[in-house]
Amino acid sequence: MRLLKLFLSPIVFLAPAIATAADDHSHDHDHGKAGFYGHLDLVVLYDHVYKAEDSDEEINEAYTHSHLEMGYDFGNGFSINSNFQLEGEPAGHDHGGGGSAPDGSNRYFVNTPLFVRSLTTNYDSDTFGAYVGKFDPVISFDEHALPGIYGYQIVDEYIVREKVGVGGYGQLNVGDYGIHRLDVSTFFADTTILSNSVLYERGRTRKSDGGVSNTENFSSVAVSLSGSGFYSLSSDIPEGLSYRVGFAHQAAGEGDETSEDRYTIAGQYQHIFTSDLNGRVLGEIVYINHLNGEIAHDRTYNTIGAELSYGQWDLGSTYTFVRNENSVDADEAQDGEVFQASLSYRFDYGITVGAGYKYQEEEGEKNHRIGALIGYSRAF
């Protein structure tokens, strides 16, 4: 732990310099070309909850899910990368800010923390790479992979995030049979000063707070295998197909009954119909054994989704069935479901506008919301 803190110190020192730099590098930076690069993604959602179990939950609210990714490439395979996130949350969610239960009052950017989501030193080559610092272990779909303006929210409920540790990957190009990549990392919950936030203080995480992976030792691991880039003219595997299978073990922290294990399998198929029209379908199953270290509680997220894009229009939707199993607490064993759909338009100059609908049932309570999104994206 002490050695890792010493390693993180120069990264923290360099973060303000990274935050003030910009050039013409794109978000998909070509490693080997020295210099600063980054990606800004600003998103504001405005929702109206028009039907809920409790009248206090029928409110208007505005919140943000925005981030600024920045890095510096030294031109020799080494780079420093960061992700600063401004994350307000809809009522009922809670990652440390903004997600408290509604009380009948409208909520506009309530308790919105600004924090360091990730901060790593990386080495990347054509066939392998390694990283150390604060990161989200690679296990399943990224939260931004799901279509629809609300698509990220269901992934945000179960994603393993903000861990400190080391990781690496190796990838193999087998031509028409795709590019396959193995990701491995070992980690523990962030208990450094980076676990806190500004604007709204969510509080620094301590080992005594408990929680799976909050051990300050490398007893938690994540492993995943992914593949894409298949070529259908020379193989039986459809072009446009991609997959990921993953496993994570999060060791028990102070006060936890046991450790948590999760298993994931995900797939996506994208098809280009014309130069203007393309679509994709996807699915993911995430099974969590001993959710949050509770022996009696298991949970499974079953998600399917689809997106159709025509020019700069995007029509996207997902459905998730949440299966709960709890042999002790019947209330915790109630199943749930989430459906969301939206239509959005991307302007040439980086602005996106959209409108959508979301239905959610959780612990026997249902609510319906409609909302609008405005966003701005720029790579540099």
Report on the architecture of this protein:
This protein is mainly β and 380 residues long. It has a single domain (2-96, 110-379), classed as Porin (Beta Barrel), CATH 2.40.160. It contains 2 helices and 17 strands. It has helices at 2-19, 151-158; strands at 35-52, 60-73, 78-87, 107-108, 114-124, 128-135, 163-173, 177-189, 220-230, 241-250, 260-272, 277-289, 297-310, 313-326, 336-346, 351-362, 365-379. It has a 16-stranded antiparallel β-barrel with strand order 1-2-3-5-6-7-8-9-10-11-12-13-14-15-16-17. A hairpin with a 4-residue loop joins strand 2 and strand 3. The protein starts with a helix and ends with a strand.
Widest beta sheet: strand line-up: 1-2-3-5-6-7-8-9-10-11-12-13-14-15-16-17
CATH architecture: Beta Barrel
Radius of gyration: 21 Å
- Count of spatially separate domains: 1
Organism: Sneathiella marina
InterPro entries: Porin_dom_sf
Keywords: Signal
Signal peptide: 1-21
Question: What descriptive keywords fit this protein?
Answer:
single chain; 380 residues; mainly beta; Porin; 16-stranded antiparallel beta barrel; 2 helices; globular; disordered N terminus
Brief summary:
This protein has 2 helices and 17 strands. With 380 residues, the chain is mainly beta. It comes from Sneathiella marina.
